[in-house]
Design a protein that fits this description.
The chain is mainly β. Helix content is 0%, strand content 42%. It is built from no helices and 10 strands. Strands 1, 2, 4, 5, 7 and 8 form a 6-stranded mixed β-sheet that branches. The N and C termini lie far apart (41 Å). The mean pLDDT is 81.
Length: 171
């Protein structure tokens, strides 16, 4: 199966930092393989060097399978764009999932990852009526940053299938 959550579920991370990563999969009592990729260069292809996580043949009998590890976000990658993160799972007796293959007993899910250069904008939500306007107050958290000029983007997601998100540059 496949689920596209790129316009409804995203997270913001900072280049150069490491994050805990958890995936809960499937049926109880079955070993599973999980892999994850982030399209860091935003070219629409999950390349081998973009695989950020791998957990093979993991089982936890009696409960759902829990895969845990870390993901390190490299420096010198696209900042402020919604990048696609793909997570794939498959029954461990089959080959581990590759970013663009079909799986027999697993599934793939896509999410959005937004890489920041250190400016953190808290996640907010609001609802606009069609053709409506609203004002949102935004606070930048620059704790721990050296004095200087920083750039980031506010990315507003939408349920509109033609315009899933808008990007607003910030300095």
């Amino acid at each position: 199966g496949y689920k596209d959550y790129t316009t409804t579920q995203n997270t913001t991370v900072t280049a150069g930092k490491t994050y805990n990563f958890y995936v809960r999969t499937g049926a109880e009592g079955y070993n599973e393989n999980v892999r994850a990729w982030i399209d860091f260069n935003n070219n629409g292809i999950f390349e081998s060097n973009e695989k950020v996580y791998e957990s093979l043949n993991v089982s936890n009998y009696g409960t759902n399978v829990n895969h845990a590890g870390t993901i390190t976000i490299p420096n010198n990658i696209l900042i402020g764009k919604a990048l696609c993160m793909r997570v794939g799972s498959e029954f461990a007796a089959n080959s581990a999932p590759e970013a663009c293959n079909n799986v027999q007993y697993g599934q793939f899910e896509d999410y959005s990852v937004i890489v920041s250069n250190g400016i953190i904008i808290p996640t907010m939500s609001d609802t606009l009526v069609t053709m409506g306007t609203d004002v949102m107050s935004v606070k930048f958290n620059a704790t721990g940053l050296n004095k200087g000029k920083y750039f980031s983007n506010i990315i507003m997601t939408s349920s509109d299938p033609l315009h899933g998100y808008d990007t607003i540059p910030c300095t």
